[in-house]
Amino acid sequence: MEKLDIIEKLATIFRTVFKKESLIITEDLTANDVEGWDSLTHMLLIAEIENVFSIKFKLKELNKMKNVGDMVAIISSKL
Amino acid sequence: MIFTSFNFLIFFPLLLIFYFITPFRFRWLTLLCASYFFYLNIKPIFALITIGVTISTYIFTRLIDNVKDDSQKKRLMVINIILILLPLFFFKYYSNINNGIIGLLESFSIRWPLPDIKLFLPIGISFYTFMAIGYTVDVYNEEIEAEKNLGILALFISFFPLILSGPIERAKNMLPQFREQKKFDYNVAAQGFKLMLWGYFLKLVVADRVGIYVDAIYNNIGQHNGTTLLFASLLYPFQVYADLGGYSLIAIGTAKVLGINVMFNFNRPFFSTSIAEFWRRWHISLITWLTDYVYTPLAFHFRTLRIWGIVLALMITFFISGIWHGANLTFIVWGLMQGFFLSLEALTSNTKTKIEDKFKLKEKSLYILVSCIITYVIFASSQILGRATSINDAFTVFRKIATSSGHLFIGELQQLVYGVLAVGFLIVIEFRQEFFTKNQDPLKFNKWYFEHLGYALLVILILLVGVFDGSQFIYFQF
Amino acid sequence: MNQLISRGLKILFFIFIIIVSDQVIGLILRKLYFNQKEGSNRALNYTFKECKSDILVFGASQALHNYDSRIITDSLGLTCFDAGQDGGHSILLQYAQIKVIAERYSPRLIFLEFNPKNIVHYPGDYDRLSILLPYYKEYPELRPLILLRSPYERIKLFSAIYPFNSKIFSIIRFNIDFLSRHKKDFEGYIPIKDKVMNIGMLKTNSEIVPQPVVDMNMLNALENIIHICKKKNVTLCIVSSPLFHTVGEKRINNSFVENQALDIIRRENVKHFDFSYDSLFMGRLDWFADAGHLNEEGATNFTKALIRRIKYDKDLCSLLNVKKK
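Structure tokens for the assembled complex are given below, as produced in the milestone run.
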């Protein structure tokens, strides 16, 4: 899957999890930029991503996701 | 040595001189010696545990870095965590577990004579143990490389500003700073002194003064009416905040004067409009530590349960934090209560956001004020469990607040006057910080001489009404 | 270079402001402190500087609330002032008071409220000596006692505010006339009106010392008080006030600590009236305000009982010129 496809898919997930239709996803988006992205919703997001892409993360990888770019890189390595 | 002792006022200037004349390469050594001197001053034997934790952590983290196999790395991490937790558990829970077992066996009429030792908790043990655990996990997660210089690792674990009560720092932030070659920076040092001064004010003028009244009430719960208990319980969070927050600020300021940046521990928590926000602004170093090393692994493990997995992880995290605060049923209930409120908020947050958006409530100052007060009251009521010595006492307090009234117990009028004025002063300063200056410096003015006058006023206030020793203790009634 | 000078000047300005305001505020507080019209500081000032009564009562809160000076004056025909001080002070404060008084005049009789149990070492007792800080300058004889707090006291006393730490509220309050009519005192004695004593209150013990150790400074203070009184020809009576006990409660064997103090009292041949287990007060909930303090009615009865004991004592009667019963 192309990077852009992954971002597109992620955007849909983000919009449902954070309930913001207008949310725009870029590679350097971090938790600080999105209202409601905290340690509670983060895990919901992760579970949803795993579900949609049918992949499984490792805890170690979770710690390495500092922004959406990192997330995309890890996801694409699993596909 | 503690920050509020006169010894520290002599120790710190002397250390500064030594520190800044030491060549850069050896500054860590000066700090290490100073840290052990500082700690040994409390009770020399306790330093053995610190050394033990340091050596164990050093060996295991080096091993983790050197083995290839992931499951082996994991095993090494777990062994080290268990090893360094042992002394903490032993000192913190020995007498509880012992009494518990004796009680249990006695109910089966078996006598099991294990010595009932009154153990003194080695001061700071939970703080440096937590820092060492965090470091071990970070090395396992490959967030940082294992430190090769035993001395620098020892300094990280024993760094004197943090060892007594935090902030619980991370190796990632601290280790590089011990190597950096930093020149003396006047502005940074000045800011450090400002924070220290404000910290001393919080500790000596607010916390210890309010504590005199709260102790007088809580030590004699049976003798006081609901009005008095309500008043003392509403004051108590300010005591806890000014105590730990003040102490943390002294620590942060001390480190800053030495040119080392340490994370802030509190971010004006009483201006939070929700419990979740409160816990992002209260005891931040502990909460982020718990988030990273307890909550996240748990929530990750339960992630397929979705929102209920998060609730479960939250409850377990706060349960553990409750046990950490004290080996007492009250703290476990306290922890579960926090978990309950947070979960409740998480479950209702969608509805709440909708209502807030619809009526644009977030811009209305009255709504903000009411939200702050509600958050405060919820926290204060949970703190009743933090303060009471037993579950029974806590229930007595709740019951009396709900059912009995009467005149407020004054005790010694001046204690109450100083305490309430000090809390008022604190609120005014923080209100200005929160909504106007938005600065970590408590007294921020455009003109330098206003600032100087402000900090001089703090010194004078500390001299006038700071609590310097036990002479202010109120006897019940007299 | 310019920056260095301006920073240096700013720091000097900061220190200058602190020193000047400390000295000025300290001076004002000192003036006001010694000008108080009522309250416990006023009572201490009065004891140190003015009091000329024939009989003095020294001790902590029990001395202040249990001894009715008016009854003592009426029955012995001698003026009496109750110099007791609230706030859990130890014998070290009483030693300070007697030391200063003895320099000025010799009272005829001193009642020293003292329970031998209290000779136990407790660090808080030294903290409470802060009550003497305002007198450090004026009374060199008190300095060794004040320095027992900590050797750093000398440095701390460079600050003019420090001796008046935590006192500003009462200093202001007792300088303003209309505010200072809260408690009536009768020649020092302050009665407690409460009659709320119940058995449940017996458990409110605030300070427990796990392993009692004799405090040598306090033991020395006791000895010194006795010696001062002998030297100045003052009759000294050590009195242990009643404590609340239920009817028939037996005295627990004297501890090692108590015996140390009692040995001195016996050796020096000082009168000791011990009411701590007196049967007259056993079970009298109506006479106590709490486990260790009598209320007004109890104080009246206790003072009368004390006078009776004195009037039965041949030596004391001849010393005080009163008729023996």
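Chain C is about 45% helix and 10% strand. The two ends of chain C are 89 Å apart (CA to CA). Further analysis is deferred to the final report.
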